[in-house]
Write a structure and sequence with these properties.
By secondary structure, the chain is of the alpha+beta class. It contains ten helices and 20 strands. A hairpin with a 5-residue loop joins strand 14 and strand 15 (204-209). Helix 1 (13-24) runs parallel beside helix 4. The structure holds flavin-adenine dinucleotide. The site of flavin-adenine dinucleotide has 36 residues, from helix 1, strand 2, strand 3, strand 13 and helix 8.
């Protein structure tokens, strides 16, 4: 391996995966997370599609995900009156032995990635808010004034990446899509398949089985935002979906009232043109690319980034060549997925958006059918 040390900024999914992937190849990795603990920010559940599982298998954690989550074999598309319009199997690509789709709680997924990173020898430093980056020297400064450097810095600091804003000020901000998403956990209701419902007066209603619960999300227009910190989030979400005749009554009726079990967030997007690196600092995950979650591929793309980074660093002779090889592998695939996610998000809000949605879905499927 041509690098001996790496600093990873951010203990999200992309940061944890890249940390383990590099540590497994003998790199001395320190992961810096600004929060006091490494944990998910309250996203409830996540769907890991087959390509994400293939990448997780490369770092030896796919089986743990299957054990702690639930494999889902089919996706049903429903009309607002509850009629199933069609059902199809979840996709497996490249002869993969892993499930087409695995539903898992975000907290369980984060905990297992963290344990896997530590097990591989990653040094974890929490409470480390990185406020400055010097790309040519691969040097970071934290809020407390500490300076750190390594052979490579990986910026996995999420959609509001401070590293991105410092390195590429012209691409600094995440752009709102005009939509927002409600997410909710319905405890102790288990569903068999992923369900999606269109045309119910909101963008998409999606439902993902978790191990013991059901996670669902509702995409809506951002102008109908709840007041910040509203105490009656479950009631508000109920008002949004309660009138939809085909929405499963047991889900609407059993929404969890626990704080954090119903969340709301405006959707934003980042599409950083290549290269995602400057000097010896590389951005990955949402820091470099984030589409609306219409294809459920955001984390999958960040997971692939982490695995491909370790592969290219191991196969090339110098850092510049490795970063160029990384970009050649990542950009065509990631840009196709981000563009398709955006097209689908826009089309969902159009009365006649079905053709555009189908076209974008096809482009994404063709990209995902190829190895990452
Ligand atoms: C509604 C919704 C549903 C989704 N569903 C799916 C799905 O089903 N499947 C899927 O594959 N993807 C999904 N995604 C996308 C997925 O959640 C994201 O792509 C993924 O979580 C991003 O991970 P990340 O590690 O890049 O960034 P983040 O999760 O944002 O992690 C960044 C980390 O960096 C830390 N950090 C930030 N700044 C600093 C700093 N200056 N110093 C130190 N640390 C810092 C943060 O505290 C955080 O821990 C969904 C997204 C949304 C919004």
């Amino acid at each position: 391996m041509m690098i001996k040390s790496a600093l990873i900024v951010g203990g999200g999914i992309a940061g944890l995966v890249s940390a383990r992937a590099l540590a497994l190849r003998g790199v001395g990795v320190t992961l810096l997370e600004r929060k006091p603990v490494v944990e998910d920010d309250g996203g409830i559940g996540i769907g890991l599609q087959n390509n994400a599982m293939n990448a997780l298998a490369e770092i030896g954690v796919a089986q743990m995900v299957v054990d702690q989550g639930v494999a889902v074999d089919s996706i049903g598309v429903y009309a607002p009156d509850g009629r199933m319009l069609h059902e199809r199997p979840t996709d497996r690509w490249c002869g993969s032995p892993w499930p087409g789709y695995t539903g898992i709680t975000r907290s369980a997924f984060h905990a297992l990635l963290l344990a896997a990173a530590i097990e591989a020898g990653v040094e974890l430093r929490t409470g480390m808010d990185v406020v400055e980056v010097e790309p040519e020297r691969a040097e970071l400064r934290t809020r407390t004034g500490e300076r750190l450097s390594a052979d490579l810095v990986v910026g996995a600091d999420g959609i509001y990446s401070r590293l991105r804003r410092a390195m590429f000020p012209e691409h600094g901000r995440a752009v709102p899509t005009g939509e927002s998403v409600w997410r909710a956990r319905v405890p102790n209701v288990r569903k068999q398949r992923i369900s999606m419902m269109f045309g119910a007066g909101v963008g998409t209603i999606g439902l993902t089985p978790l191990r013991d619960d059901t996670y669902f999300y509702v995409v809506d227009r951002s102008e109908r935002a709840p007041p910040r910190g509203a105490p009656d989030m479950a009631e508000r979400l109920h008002a949004l979906i309660g009138h939809v005749p085909g929405f499963p009554a047991e889900l609407a009726g059993q929404l969890s009232r626990l704080p954090g079990d119903v969340t709301y967030r405006p959707l934003e997007t980042v599409r950083l043109a290549p290269p995602w690196h400057k000097g010896r600092v590389l951005l990955i995950g949402d820091a470099a690319h984030a589409g609306p979650p219409t294809l459920a591929q955001g984390a999958a793309m960040g997971i692939e980034d982490g695995v491909v980074l370790a592969q290219t660093l191991a196969s090339e002779l110098d850092l510049d060549t490795a970063l160029a090889a990384f970009m050649r592998r990542r950009w065509p695939r990631v840009s196709t997925i981000v563009d398709a996610s955006l097209t689908i998000a826009r089309a969902q809000m159009e009365p006649n958006g079905q053709a555009a949605m189908a076209e974008a879905g096809k482009a994404a499927a063709a990209a995902l059918a190829k190895p990452f």
